[in-house]
Design goal:
Layout (H helix, E strand, L loop, with lengths): L1 H20 L32 H4 L3 H13 L1 H22 L4 E13 L7 E16 L4 H67 L5 H15 L1 H19 L27 H7 L1 H22 L4 E12 L9 E10 L7 H67 L5 H35 L5
Helix pairs in contact: 3-5, 4-5, 5-6, 5-7, 5-9, 5-11, 9-10, 10-11
Amino acid sequence: MRRISDISRLCIIALALLAASCSPAKHCAQPDLNLPSVYLADMTDSTTIADIEWWTIYSDTVLHRLIQQTLEHNKDMLIASERIEEMRQMHRISKSALFPSLSGEVGGNHEWTNAGGSKPVSDPEITARLDLSWEIDLWGNLRWASRKGAAEYLASVEAKRAMQMTLISEVAKAYFELIALDNEYTIVQRTLVTRQEGVRQAKIRFEGGLTAETPYQQAQVELASTASIIPELKRNIAVKESQIALLTGQYPGEIKRGGQLSVYESRLEVPVGIPSGLLQRRPDIRQEEQKLAAAQAAVGVAQAERFPKFTINLAAGLENDAFTSFFKSPIYNIAAELVAPIFSFGRRKARFKASVSAYNQAKLSYEKKVLEAFKEVYDAVITYQTARENVVLKRHLLNASRKNVELTRFQYIDGAINYLDLLDAQRKYFDAQIALSDAVRDEHLSFIALYKSLGGGW
């Protein structure tokens, strides 16, 4: 008895050592991130705007409605939701392999034979039985398969979150671009009225003999040049509206607008947090992390497939050749099966090595995603800071251009300068208005990019 006990103990230890050898940990190196402590030297605040909900970040109620419509009706979001359900059911399938499977069989057959022309033999059979089959997960291949399914399911969840983050930023970006186009259209229309008035006055002065024909023709050129901008603006507005309609899951049509495009006066500085928090906040990084976990689990599966499989089969029921004594004819059968790979021309080993290479690819992809995310935040911070500075400078330019037009107009009326000087001042004022509108738009877009790059919006 003592010898049997010692043998059992040795068998348990041997099984434990074999099971430990199936762990993929020693074959799968951990990602090497080496993250910096801060994005920029002067940014050490641990808080971040990414923790603020998108409906607080974007105060325009019309934009709120567009974003909500996008989240509810955008086709990519709906596809992502179905993908989550698919992966959830696939995980359920892989998890169920850990437990016994039970099936039932009810049937009957009648076999008639006449071997060699002898007396015919009739052999009826009626069967009703239950079959139970259970693969004992000795080496963890089923558990690793279940973990792989769970990681793929979680990756699909993070993919949907990343999709939501992207769609919110895309809708906000398109919306502010649309308002900026509206503002530019208003500027052009207002300038067109000024150009028409300039043509009228130039014509009066020319016909009155006060000036030559050249100023009058130049005024007409400026009028035609300004008018030629309008068709392209109308096209850009219509295209932008159709882009927003597609994002919201609708057919092209007019898009309602909210307020005017204004400067973010209160957002001179925004907290961005620390790089380590980006790993938990960005869903696309978390998606890559789950893909890495799935790849590691695949290594575990491939490693365990190189060891024997142990299966228990149990069958029990009733079987007879007649209904009269059918319920008095129980049968049962129990069997255990150990199937071990012996020689497969290196197929299993190659599959294992391939899974390790796939893991290394997933690891490098994860490291690359972290690098890309850090770069996106760094670029977004710089872009936002310069956009803020550009708005201030363009506002100064607009004020100076406006004052220059006023002074030039008085000088022209007094005859101190010619009409071309006045047109040049008006042209610079028009350009300054467009430049400020573009600068304010870029400031909004850079803020959207910063909010998205930090993982805000989901």
